[in-house]
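Hey L., structure's done. Input below.
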Amino acid sequence: MSNLKISCVIVDDEPMALNLVESYVDKTPFLVLKKKCSSAIEALEFLKTTPVDLLFLDIQMPDLSGIEFSKMLPKETRIIFTTAFDQYALEGFKVEALDYLLKPFDYAEFLAASNKANTWFELVKGKQHNDLPVEKEFLFVKSEYKQLRIKLADVLYFEGLKDYIKIWLKDNPKPILTLMSLKSLQEELPETQFMRVHRSFIVALKNIEVVERSQIVINNQRITIADQYKSKFLDFINSNSLNI
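Output:
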């Protein structure tokens, strides 16, 4: 079962309609009511400081109609129109409303429209999740005519030697030697986990034990931080330091 919560605002100039929709929202587990407003003007002011996912929006209201108001909303805010007049249905769909509830509507109709919104937000949430960059967990490197699977979590640091790289791993006294440039390797590594600190070294940030003067200590190995990499490395240190 989804744990998705949809924040919403009810906008209607009729007090009875406001209260009815509020009672429906209260019965619906995935809806969270943030405010009920008796005019589009009131809702507009509220939304300036408190964005929400969904509006239950009446269409025929004084000063500013629901249709006019809907055109002022950010595209992330979705709408379910509620109205007593079916002639607005076409306009409602033109502004990409998720649904259109014709008054008087019962809870079953309200729930069906709300479920449609729930499905829409779940799809969007899933797409956003899939669009996030996935951190690499391993690399395959060629060494002695074999392709070795290297877990990035086990890497202490990479040491460049002309056209070769030594890969130093936890619990492994001897490095793995592979034919590759440090520059090419750097392009393949996740920046959140590894940083180049010298012409010949890329270090695993989580395995740094000590930073002393201009040197990093990892597994008793001292690695000098070259001047051209100091600024970026100091930014990393400062962003992960306790300011006491």
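Residues 107-131 form the longest helix (25 residues). The chain has two domains: 6-131, 138-239.

-- N.
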